[in-house]
Amino acid sequence: MKDINKKTKTKLLLSFLENVPFDGWSWNTLYSSAIEIGLVKSKKISEIEKSNVRNLFNDSLVNIIQEFNIYLDNEMKQSFKKSKSKNFRIPDKIKSQITLRLKAANKFKEAVRLSLGMMALPKNSKIALTMLYKTCDNIWRNCGDKSTDFSFYTKRLILSGVYSSTLSYWLNESDFAKVEDFLQRRLNNVSNFGKMKKFKNVINQSNPFNTFFKILQRFNSSRYS
Fold this sequence. Notes:
Strand content: under 5%
Distance between the termini: 48 Å
Number of domains: 2
C-alpha cells in the first residue's frame, strides 16, 4: 500500500462514508473503500494491508467518527470564512455555521445516523461529549469569542442544546428550509437561558470537559430538552 497523505486519507474517509449506508460502519467497508479509491491495488486485500488501513484510524471504528467530526468542523470553518456571514451579528454567525455544517453532512446523512447510534453507547459517551464540546467551541471561536469567565461554559452549553436538537430534527427532515426554520426557533429561545448561572457551583477550571458534562446533564433534565 502506498504512503498516505492527508488528502488521500480524507478521500478514503469520504469513500467510506458513501459506502456506509450499503455496507455498514465496519472494517470491511473501509477495506472495500481502500480498494475503490486505488489505495490498495489488488482486488483482494491482504492481512497486512488490512492492518495498515485500520492503523490510519488508530485501529478504531470510533476514531473514524472522530475524523468525520473533524472533517465537518473544518468544512464548516472554511465555508464560513468564505461567506459574507462572518460580518453578521453573533446569532446569525452561529446559524450560518450550523447550517453550513449540516449542508456539508447532507450527502452523508445515513452515515451520521449510524455514527450517532454508535456514540450513544455508554462506553463512547465521553468521546461523544468531547466531540460535541469541540464543535460548539469551534463555532464560538469562529465567531470571535474570547470569553474566559463563566459565560465561556454557558455559551457552549446552550449551543450544544441548540445544535443537538437541530441535528436530530435534520436527521428526520428532507426539507432543508424547515431545518433552517427549526434552527432559527431554537436560537430565538436562547434568551430563556439566563438561569444557567445557577450552575456556577459545578465549574472546575482544571477540567472543562467534566464541567461541560455536569452542566449538560442538568441542562438535559430541563423542560427545554
